[in-house]
Amino acid sequence: MLDILVQEENERESGETGPCMEYLLHHKILETLYTLGKADCPPGMKQQVLAFYTKLLGRIRQPLLPHINVHRPVQKLIRLCGEVLATPTENEEIQFLCIVCAKLKQDPYLVNFFLENKLKGMASKGSADVITEDMIRGQDSPATDMGQPIQSEEMPIAAGAEQMEKEDDLPQQADELSFSLDELNVASSPESSTVGPNQDYNLVNSLLNLTKSPDGRIAVKACEGLMLLVSLPEPAAAKCLTQSTCLCELLTDRLATLYKALPQSLDPLDIETVEAINWGLDSYSHKEDASAFPGKRALISFLSWFDYCDQLIKEAQKTAAVAMAKAVRERFFIDVMEPQLMQTSEIGILTSTALLHRIVRQVTSDVLLQETVYFILGEHREPETLTDINRHPLRHRLIEHCDHISDEISIMTLRMFEHLLQKPNEHILYNLVLRNLEERNYIEYKPFCQEDKDVVENGQIAGAVDLEEDPLFTDLSPDNTLSTQEWLSPSPPVSPEHQKNDGKTEVHKIVNSFLCLVPDEAKSSYHVEGTGYDTYLRDAHRQFRDYCVICLRWEWPGSPRPLEKCNLEASFFEGHFLRVLFERMGRILDQPYDVNLQVTSVLSKLALFPHPHIHEYLLDPYVNLASGCRSLFSVIVRVVGDLMVRIQRIPDFTPKLLLVRKRLLGLEPEGPIIDHMTLLEGVIVLEEFCKELAAIAFVKYHASSTP
């Protein structure tokens, strides 16, 4: 039959229906084949019918699905697919379903033939009435919420078997959708989620069943079919997909099941370094793996399913994507992950934070990223106050973990925030930092008068602290400062005044301020080749360019908000996140080396953002701070003051410092333990951090002054 139909089409002009095809359509041959396939009579007939339908749809070029005598039997055959897992016909079933999905992808409007009207269709003999917009809008009424629940991933096997028996006992006309409401209202087990009726979008329901196939290839093909269906632009299909099928439940229940199957304790390094996961290639052999660790199989399964959810949401039609992402947030992030992140067990906190860090790194869908960000940080955008920093408990807890008694937890949480800040989502930086800098109320504002103008022209900023008169900066003489040519050439044109018209402090003064913060007796980099300030310029330039690309669409202002328009009377609070970072920065001389590296890394990432208020608050040493306020520069100044006092008490300070630096660089072999090791390592990190900030300040200035 198939060969005759293909040959007939090839012999005729494009689009012309031949007599054989007309016979097939008018005499309901496909209906007859469906009936034989359903009964599997003679045995093996179902397999043959599925193969025939698949080849017919795949090889005939003219559109067949719009014909009622094609789409009606196709719809009925779809219902037979995925009914029982691991059947001999599974391969043919998935091939058939995928060809239908491919046809719908070519002509998305055809999907309307597969959205069944569940109210009218129940009485008719299997008729697949086309669902209307009104019908879909009415799906929220109680009468339409009854449905035959699909077995959930978490339902015990016995309960599933019991349910299968109940389904087998249903009357024969069940296939024709004529269930009574009593039969439909089967109670779900408490763990299984209540789902919408599975009569509306049977193509999706059959694919959902086949994603549970024990044969991995079948499951992957079913996932590919779902990927095609969610991307269809038809709004009616998208709404039916998320409201009347259990797609969202399948995604989130499986995420939850796979997450719960992970060991209670996993090495964070294993979580971070397990190879990149592709959902379609979730094949893993423990025997062949040289770097196996307990729980690796479970971890790969979880991460590959999360990758599938991410890709599905990325490809999905917009309303379907939002619905699926919200389901992931509510049913997985909040219900499953949040209790793990809020626990008090240190091992549990470390493992769950490492998994959250991996998820943050892995997510690529904008819609899912938005929901992930709202889960971690909440949706608040108004300035923080000391009294309400606990408004979003998870955000509060995670920021507190940045200063945890366990260094491992602190480092892991800081790394999570560092990666979060690099994600292309404006709400992250606004929620953590920017909302508290909007009013610029960290500035001591004096109205500008003629006297101040004269002072500026004479080479001093009004109200600024002159570093040369500061007791901490007695070594800041003209001989010690770097000339413009020394730190980079070519440099921007030097103007005689210290403040540009746009409010930027002359860049060489800023750079020298950071470079001269650490006193000469506490510096060790100039004794070691290749550790100069210029090494940071290349990195800063590359990173700043990347950040500018991310922030371009956020339409940030080019200059700070005019002080006249700011509410300077409001008391300033830097926000919970910066407060914790500043407190950790203030203890840099007493913290482990790894913690210091991570704290300074997060602060330098913040300083790179091209927002004028961030630049002013974190990178301008000459900003005139309001009473009781601190900035990054003022925190470092206090640390340096403490350092200068402590240096006096340590004999042979400079040689010890140089030895520690060489050991850290691997230039010296590990030897006897040196006294004051933590302090010496802290001094080295402090010196390097000041050079990094100087490089960032210069690169940002140069970028803004270049047209």
TrEMBL record:
InterPro entries: FHIP, FHIP_C, FHIP_KELAA_motif. The gene is LOC101876914. Residues 574-666 form the FHF complex subunit HOOK-interacting protein C-terminal domain. It comes from the Eukaryota. Belongs to the FHIP family. This is FHF complex subunit HOOK-interacting protein C-terminal domain-containing protein. It comes from Melopsittacus undulatus (Budgerigar).
